[in-house]
Design the sequence.
């Protein structure tokens, strides 16, 4: 009886497989003749906070460490980050930024003040990684600075002094102190964050209170690197925006900006939004099934609605889109690893998270006219990270590989794609089955990123390029045996990109996307 049942099931499986392969391919039309805005490479930015092992252990191991390092910064991590062309690193927080006092982190290492990281785990903060180490790290990985100043517990005077230390190109006292610490040339602060979540951990300020503080900080945080200020690379200031639905920060900040006087300005506004599956975060990062996959992915797609809403508010005051939206904290915030300090926000990173990253990056690119920056939280060992380390060991996560696959999209020109995504359903949840974006890089090459959300069914796609005929289609695909597959120190290559190519007939490219996969292909 049992074997009959099994035979029946197998026949059913065979039948549905043949139905699946006989299914009409999903038609994608790449509208290459309707180019959109440039996709700012800053959309692929990172966030590194003094939190758990995000900095200590993840980046900074100290000059005397046995782990190979350059001036205390671990070399394996630098090499991995260089390979994904990190455009900017937001630092020092996060909540930590509004209790950070920069003076504690400059000068001789043995004189640095030992403080307590009260935001994250109540551990000793040695301040060994401070301003000069941060800029050294940026130089090693080839990235721009995004420094957040302390509005919550700091003063405009303290922030102005920090700017003087970092940027003064004339021999002021603080510029000379920087030179004495080994850096005569001014640093380039490309982005300056005016506070962090000041509706919450940054001082629980009402929106109008924040606006008054922000205006003072915007004025007094002068960039004294005048060479930089003269050019197109002028420092950009970003204010705090929306608080996951509760506050009216976006409205108040934009209203103030619209009516501003000459003495202050901002170039952007932040939005923070995590996929959590309900608070406190409880979705597992390891050993979960389709249920937790579907919950996380369905939530990830909601980013689009948030951007539409926030852009709508911004459009009222800024129809010309001069003020950018910076999604400077986003990603999956999952249950902490069992046995870890819950204040360290340590979690594994699976194929699910990689797919979630592709969905979010695609949404940002579709909003490239307003979204000019995004920073995944966080770069190493914290939340949805690129890299995990444990002592001398390092492993690249599936999310890292999405950033690597998406390299052609940095500063490329957005190209619309028309397609009917279909549905992926799991129990009461429904979401698109497919997602796709296209762009033309500076060399003129056309790229397509396609995600097959469905964890059970392969997707056949037929890609037509308007105004052109496809010649070849090939690239790389990221997938694995299960949505919960992870890379570990012992098995680092479970989820890594593999080559993928399709066929072309009559100028249309045909590709089969495995279930639960992210592919990036060149359309030649
Ligand atoms: O990324 C972790 C924390 O999440 C940040 O410190 C804070 O800004 C946000 O609430």
Sequence:
């Amino acid at each position: 009886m049992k074997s009959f049942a099994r035979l029946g099931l197998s026949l059913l499986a065979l039948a549905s497989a043949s139905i699946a392969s006989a299914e009409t391919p999903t038609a994608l039309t790449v509208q290459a003749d309707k180019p959109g805005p440039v996709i700012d490479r800053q959309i692929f930015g990172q966030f590194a906070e003094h939190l758990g092992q995000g900095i200590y252990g993840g980046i900074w191991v100290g000059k005397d460490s046995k782990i190979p390092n350059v001036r205390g910064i671990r070399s394996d991590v630098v090499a991995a980050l260089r390979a994904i062309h990190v455009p900017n690193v937001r630092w020092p927080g996060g909540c930590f930024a509004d209790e950070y006092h920069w003076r504690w982190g400059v000068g001789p290492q043995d004189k640095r003040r030992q403080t307590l990281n009260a935001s994250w785990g109540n551990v000793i903060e040695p301040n060994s990684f401070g301003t000069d180490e941060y800029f050294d790290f940026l130089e090693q990985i080839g990235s721009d600075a995004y420094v957040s100043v302390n509005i919550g517990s700091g003063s405009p005077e303290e922030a102005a002094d920090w700017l003087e230390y970092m940027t003064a190109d004339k021999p002021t006292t603080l510029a000379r102190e920087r030179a004495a610490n080994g850096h005569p040339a001014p640093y380039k602060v490309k982005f300056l964050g005016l506070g962090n979540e000041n509706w919450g951990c940054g001082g629980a300020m009402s929106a109008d209170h924040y606006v008054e503080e922000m205006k003072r900080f915007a004025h007094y945080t002068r960039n004294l690197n005048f060479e930089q200020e003269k050019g197109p690379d002028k420092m950009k200031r970003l204010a705090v925006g929306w608080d996951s639905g509760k506050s009216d920060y976006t409205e108040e900040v934009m209203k103030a900006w619209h009516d501003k006087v000459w003495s202050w300005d901002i170039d952007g506004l932040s939005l923070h939004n995590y996929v959590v599956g309900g608070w406190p975060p409880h979705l597992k990062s390891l050993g979960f099934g389709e249920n937790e996959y579907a919950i996380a992915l369905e939530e990830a797609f909601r980013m689009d609605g948030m951007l539409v809403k926030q852009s709508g508010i911004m459009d009222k005051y800024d129809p010309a889109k001069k003020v950018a939206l910076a999604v400077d904290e986003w990603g999956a915030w999952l249950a902490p690893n069992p046995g870890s300090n819950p204040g360290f926000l340590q979690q594994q990173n699976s194929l699910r998270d990689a797919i979630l990253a592709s969905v979010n990056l695609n949404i940002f690119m579709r909003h490239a006219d307003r979204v000019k920056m995004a920073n995944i939280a966080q770069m190493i060992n914290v939340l949805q990270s690129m890299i995990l380390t444990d002592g001398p060991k390092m492993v690249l996560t599936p999310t890292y590989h999405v950033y690597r696959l998406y390299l052609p999209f940095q500063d490329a020109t957005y190209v619309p794609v028309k397609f009917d995504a279909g549905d992926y359903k799991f129990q009461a949840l429904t979401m698109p089955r497919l997602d796709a974006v296209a762009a033309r890089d500076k060399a003129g090459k056309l790229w397509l990123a396609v995600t097959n959300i469905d964890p059970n069914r392969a997707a056949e796609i037929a890609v037509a390029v308007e105004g052109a005929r496809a010649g070849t289609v090939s690239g790389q695909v990221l997938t694995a045996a299960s949505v919960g597959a992870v890379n570990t120190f012992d098995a680092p290559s479970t989820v890594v990109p593999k080559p993928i190519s399709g066929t072309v007939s009559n100028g249309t490219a045909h590709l089969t996307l495995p279930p639960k996969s992210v592919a990036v292909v060149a359309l030649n």
The chain has two domains: 23-36+415-523, 41-409. The CA atoms of residues 98 and 150 lie 4 Å apart. The first helix runs from residue 2 to 22.
